[in-house]
Design brief:
Order of helices and strands: HHHHHHHHEEHHEEEHHEHHEEHEEEH
Mean pLDDT: 77
Helix content: 55-70%
Distance between the termini: 94 Å
Strand order of the largest sheet: 2-1-5-4-3
Radius of gyration: 43 Å
Number of strands: 11
Length: 517
């Protein structure tokens, strides 16, 4: 604990303010001292009187090899000890030995230098110890020497006054310097914020994918809010389903923790209860700060609720940083809302209203893209299905029953296809399934699985004329084609032809006549 406090005290004084000048001052001091030594030596002055000054000067030589900036703890401790030992102790020793005006002025100059360069907490502690050591040296090296205590006391009081004045002036300068640095830092941060907001506005027009956009935003966050980790997440519209996410500066362990526990922080169920409330909320727990709120968007199922959350790991945001973060959050949430709404609008324009399947217009676009990219090694298959007996159900039970038949067939297909397959309503009773990365054998297995589910698929109907209730079996005839058979462009016609053959076979096997052929 003491060592930690001592280290904090050392680093409380900004040594970078004068460290670049230390090498110049030390070099000049050593050169002047050596010049004085040789001048006095040439005049026949006794050599022994200069042994101690030479030792003092030599102790400063290591400072010539210090880095210009960013001193470590060892550099700082050595510098402080050299100042405390050499200036107060050495000049106090000379003053006590000879209280002449020369040494008094030298002592005052040394005290001013010591007060300016040293950390004031260390100087206040070591200054009286160094003066006491000087008295002990005089008594041990010069026993019986008479000492003018009154003159020494007067000079020490003047030196202490000078020491205090320098410390006050230095603290004022340090405070002004720190204020300027703080203002400069705030100005730089504001510039960075404006730059980030501008970049966001540019990226919004360039990047459509929210995950990619989130990664770019978090990269900017690192420069504005350093030494912190970030996570962006959009949950919904189904609870605990993450629609979009990005992480930056967070360990894999923390990422796993967030993915498992994210619903505990401003969870989806909390946001979903605040209908229309999109204010930013925040919580803090176990080293995390979490900001979040709801995003409400129209969808094919009505109003969709998304839970938007930003996770911050690291030092807590101060009030100014918090306000800045809220500006970013509102901007990001607006971007997320616009992207989600654009996606929902696209889905609405590409979706069949009755079944929720993709519509014919979207099929023609996707099919053209797949045909252009089709290669033997990246084959895809097409399943063309036609609902049997739809016209008869419409005429017998009404269009509501016919719509129920179509919806039931569509729901059964969606339930049994792969997650990568796309299901389209091509026409009134025609449904198409596009199977990426699938040859015909795999598409045939899909049809077999669907036919197996159709065995127990029925709908409840009521005869419009008699009011008699009955059940109608859901039956679909399928035709399958693959892009490797005759070329991708002919897949639709080939699958349609095979579907027609399957329908004829089904009617023949069940001894039924085609209704209104």
């Amino acid at each position: 604990m003491i060592a930690r406090q001592f280290k904090n005290t050392l680093f409380d004084w900004n040594y970078n303010l004068y460290a670049p000048y230390v090498r110049f001052i030390v070099t000049t001091t050593i050169a002047c001292q050596l010049l004085l030594y040789f001048l006095l030596q040439s005049q026949g002055v006794i050599e022994g009187r200069f042994v101690a000054p030479l030792i003092v000067v030599a102790s400063y030589i290591p400072l010539l090899f210090f880095p210009p900036r960013d001193w470590r703890a060892g550099h700082i401790i050595y510098f402080e000890l050299i100042l405390a030992v050499n200036i107060p102790l050495y000049f106090s020793y000379l003053l006590i030995s000879d209280t002449s005006p020369y040494w008094a002025v030298t002592f005052l100059a040394g005290t001013v230098a010591y007060a300016f360069f040293s950390c004031w907490q260390i100087a206040v502690l070591l200054y009286p110890l160094a003066v006491s050591a000087a008295f002990a040296l005089v008594h041990s090296l010069h026993p019986g020497q008479e000492i003018a205590y009154h003159e020494l006391l007067y000079i020490q009081l003047v030196a202490f006054f000078a020491f205090t004045v320098v410390q006050v002036v230095k603290n004022v300068l340090i405070s002004s310097h720190n204020t300027m640095l703080h203002l400069k830092g705030k100005a730089d941060q504001q510039n960075e914020i404006f730059s980030a907001l501008f970049d966001i506005s540019v990226e919004v027009t360039r990047v459509d994918d929210l995950d990619e956009l989130f990664h770019l935003l978090l990269k900017r966050f690192e420069t504005i809010f350093p030494r912190r980790g970030f996570g962006l997440m959009v949950e919904g519209p189904r609870q605990k389903v993450i629609a979009h996410m990005a992480f930056r500066g967070i360990s894999e362990k923390d990422t796993s923790h967030l993915l498992q526990e994210h619903s505990q922080f401003l969870g989806y169920e909390i946001v979903s209860r605040r209908k229309g409330d999109e204010t930013i909320s925040s919580v803090a727990s176990a080293g995390w700060q979490v900001f979040g709120g709801g995003i409400y968007s129209a969808s094919t199922q009505g109003l969709a609720v998304y839970c938007f959350k930003l996770f911050i790991k690291g030092t807590k945001l101060d009030e100014a940083e918090r306000r800045t973060m809220e500006v970013f959050l509102e901007t990001i949430r607006g971007i997320s809302r616009s992207r989600i709404q654009a996606r929902e609008l696209e889905r609405l324009s590409n979706t069949d209203h009755l079944t929720g399947l993709f519509n014919r217009k979207y099929f023609e676009r996707i099919f053209a893209e797949w045909c252009a990219k089709a290669r033997p090694e990246t084959a895809f298959s097409l399943v063309f299905g036609d609902i049997n007996g739809l016209k008869r159900v419409n005429d017998t039970y009404g269009h509501k029953a016919g719509d129920l038949l179509i919806r039931t067939a569509a729901a059964l297909l969606v339930k049994n296809v792969r997650s990568s397959d796309l299901v389209f309503r091509f026409g009134g009773d025609e449904i198409i399934i596009l199977c990426p990365n699938a040859f015909r054998e795999e598409a045939d297995k899909l049809v077999d699985r669907i036919n197996g589910m159709l065995v127990n698929a029925v709908i409840d109907c009521v005869d419009e004329l008699t009011g008699e209730k009955s059940r109608e079996q859901v039956r679909i005839s399928f035709g399958v084609s693959c892009s490797t058979e005759r070329g991708a462009e002919e897949m639709l016609d080939l699958a349609d032809s095979r579907m027609f053959q399957a329908k004829e076979s089904w009617y023949a096997e069940n001894c039924l006549e085609r209704y209104r052929q």
